[in-house]
Amino acid sequence: MVLIMMKNIYDLRSFPLAIAIDKCVYSLIKENTMIKATLFISFLFVSFYFTAAQELKATDDSASVKVYVHEDGKPNAVGETVIFESRKNKVKYEVVTGSNGFAYVLLPEGETFDISYQDFFTEQDYAVLEVPSEEGLIYYEVEVIYTPATVFKLENVYFDFGKATLRPESYTALNELANMLKAKPKITIEIGGHTDNVGDDQSNLTLSQNRAESVRAYLIGKGISGNRITAKGYGESKPVASNDTDEGRQQNRRTEVKILSR
After folding, report:
1. Residue 19 and residue 259: Cα distance in Å, rounded?
2. pLDDT digits (tens, 9 = 90+) for 91-125
3. DSSP conformational letter for 15
């Protein structure tokens, strides 16, 4: 929960969320009044400062929101997605940080928004922003400081049985991955192929390598430089569940994306 107090700045900390988002900050500037709320465990008073959004001008019925995203202690990141979803009508306002590390959006006054940050395929609601309906122009800043995940399971990627041939129902997830890589051009990744323990070790290792290579080839075909993608087959060497059950073996048959550099 985020506490908002007029004319004062408070910090409110909470434990990291499932996707390791450490902090979300948002501040309101209205004439000489500022609100700033941060997700922390205990309250801590900090000094006042004044800032204003530059790219979008607030209107009588919409607040201007400036958004920036970065890892703790690092510069603002390019190509990061933040989503504001209205609780009133479920309309989503999605912004992506540009080359200067910022994004801007106008949000209607008198509504409450769930803020979420998307890191590749993971989207997590982690803060609430209430935009009051009042006279005057309203400006917000939303700062997301996060610890990035390094390994993702690539959901909904399927191959023909015992082969490295991608099935058509895999294309949606792979296209999404390609779009993410285009939005974040500095990222390099490893595609990791994994199997269960059915069959001999060498056959599983070869199959997993070929499947990882198939995913890499698909992404290259979508315009991603091959220099940004490596493919590695792990066979049955890195199970995430017991191979003693059908369910466990299904979990072990997977394709993963590992972030090598950002």
Report:
1. 14
2. 999 998 888 889 999 999 999 999 988 766 666 66
3. -
